[in-house]
Amino acid sequence: MQIEQIYTGCLAQGAYYITSNGEAAIIDPLREVQPYLDRLERDSVKLKYIFETHFHADFVSGHIDLSNKTGAPIVYGPEAKPEFRFISAKDGEEFTVGSIKLKTLHTPGHTLESTCYLLIDEEGKEHALFSGDTLFIGDVGRPDLAQKAAHMTQEQLAATLYNSLRKKIMTLPDEVIVYPAHGAGSACGKNMSKETVSTIGNQKKFNYALRANMTETEFVTEVTDGLLPAPAYFSANVAMNKKGYESYETVLDNGMRALDPDEFEAAADESGALILDTRNNAEFYKGFIPQSINIGLGGDFAPWVGSLIADVKQEILLITDEGMEEETVTRLSRVGFDNVLGHLKGGFRAWENAGKETDQVDRISAGEFAKAYEQHDKIIDIRKDSEYDTQHIKDAESMPLADINNWIKEIDPLEHFYIHCAGGYRSMMAASILQSRGYRNFSEIEGGISAITDPVVPMIKS
Question: Distance between CA 221 and CA 209 in Å, rounded?
């Protein structure tokens, strides 16, 4: 028996590849399935089952493409009703893979169909739990995402989750290994650890939601407290995972269409597509195509795309560093942004060489900010509220980047202001969005609050 966690940092997501005696199972696969196919061939094993823990909201799973290419059936737990052929597993039902078994544990609460899979090894021992979004390391799944579909309140779903955890998971042996679907950085929970593997026993000790004497009322209150609004793309991803989607190969072929500057400009004018520039913010601010939005590929690219671009059906034209076109299209497809019309051949340099119009952001250094700073200046801090509460510039306003589509309407286009984040990645996103909507009355601070050390700028710490 072999278990491999295939972790994708950009999505903070864990897929699982399990083999035993010539057969394999894959749990919660990513959108692009060729790496799994290559691995199956290399290991000379046959894929017997594709297990899905629930209808994922934060990424598009590769279950359909993988099933089409291998013939392996897709397995969901009780209450799942996808619009394609699948196996509806009963609670407690066991599936044999080689010399091991995977037992279905229906654990509703995060969603009604949420299901964990308990691996029973060759000796009949309960060995590992693939816990999906029901149990994370240090946290549990948020209970507010499935309210509409379940016709339940988040409090009712939280109470359901409480009982699932107590009756199905906390009763397992302490030595059972826990393999969750996500780690720190995912929006599917609020208190996840950076660790991606644990045990039932450790979670009983250190996970706040698994306290031994915790009442249902306490659980509901603590699990629902402080939940941030779900990113805009979540509902669209659930629909794609439930109903089906275009093949990854088709999406990639479209996105890999190389356009010279004239073709790119014509495509932008004709389609009204959003121009997405994925270069590093240190390069973007010096020069970019007017109206383009900067979301750097080097950070949490896919989740930010999903949070800032409201419609997954939005047509997109790409500007990337040369050689990063396929990686960019792939990451976009993982969160359901399939309508990439093509990319600028030769990158931004080709646009400049063609003598096309460019724009810049007014980026200033932290030192320049310290010299120009006066206490009445308007400063917008776009970090998360939790970061702001830890430390912020005195009198700075907290306006998180994730809410920019709301707070941008409150900006006075005539009053100059400064904008910053922690290090410059997020503030350049905000700067590009502001300029694309006609706001030019601001200066973005290079390096963010991490670079602002001058004592002239008063800080407030929690």
Answer: 11
